[in-house]
Amino acid sequence: MTTRPGAVTIHGNPLTLVGETPAVGKPAPDATLLAAGLKPVQLADYKGKTVVLVTVPSLDTPVCDTETRRFNREAVALGDKVAVLVVSVDLPFAQARWCGAAGVDRVVALSDHKETAFGVAYGVLIQELRLLARSVFVIDADGVLRYVQVVKEITQEPDYEAVLKAVGAVV
Hints:
By secondary structure, the chain is an alpha+beta fold. The chain has a single domain, classed as Glutaredoxin. It contains four helices and eleven strands. It has helices at 62-78, 92-102, 117-121, 160-170, and strands spanning 3-10, 13-18, 32-34, 40-42, 50-55, 82-88, 107-111, 125-126, 131-132, 135-139, 145-150. The strands form three sheets. It has a five-stranded mixed β-sheet. The protein has a four-stranded antiparallel β-sheet with strand order 1-2-8-9. Strands 3-4 form a two-stranded antiparallel sheet. The mean pLDDT is 97.
């Protein structure tokens, strides 16, 4: 399995990502994630919609909280042709609790806690922490990856404007 030492940092300290980042212009890897109630969800279930696929280390951290709330607000303006999914290794029960407490109702929280196969398929699994790196992928309605942003320093937020521009180019 491919590892990429120093691909991201936390507070300037290098971390290793497991897996390869999928290539823009190629079909987005499918993966099975868990929704609330431990319901399996396939990324392929969203074919026909543009998908903003956001990965965060944990919803229970300040930057992830801020980021997910921001994407929840943006999801309203993006409309029904766009699905915003936030993936972490948090348990689905913790995700549901956090979303309820935060009033997050437009973003779908999904968990990769069981096998971290999603994290490996998208090249965002942090080997040292068994968490996902902060990243954003945009997948078009045909299931083709159109945009990738892996945030180098995971304590920083993504470039929201670049993500929204990428979404606007494919919707």
